[in-house]
Design a protein that fits this description.
The chain is an alpha/beta fold and 136 residues long. It is built from five helices and four strands, in the order βαβαβαβαα.
Amino acid sequence: MSDGGLVGIVLVSHSAEVAASVAELARSLAAGGTAVPVAAAGGTEGGGIGTSSELVAAAAASVDGGAGVALLTDLGSAVLTVKALLAEGDELPPDSRLVDAPFLEGAVAAVVTAATGAGLDAVEAAAVEAYTYRKV
């Protein structure tokens, strides 16, 4: 574990309900481990479908413990929103990273790995590896 605490996880979805549900599932599957800071950033400020840079930035700030922040996204404009925030350079905590991973499986892998005290590189690798999970 880094001296700065655990890696924080932000789940960015077009839907507040989807982001919150995936966060809840990931937390529950990591139960028994250290509580990982996870924030859902779904929908718009008005509760509609879409993405909001303000909600993403606030979520990232809320989970930042100094060990980095992994941001996982669902679709198109969620990715673009996070990329734009990263490009601005000062909207997200230092060591914030967009993780190219499947949303649900990647979130679970990221939270479970972060709960072990692993660093941002290991959390990202676990989430990315979720692309290889086979169901049949």
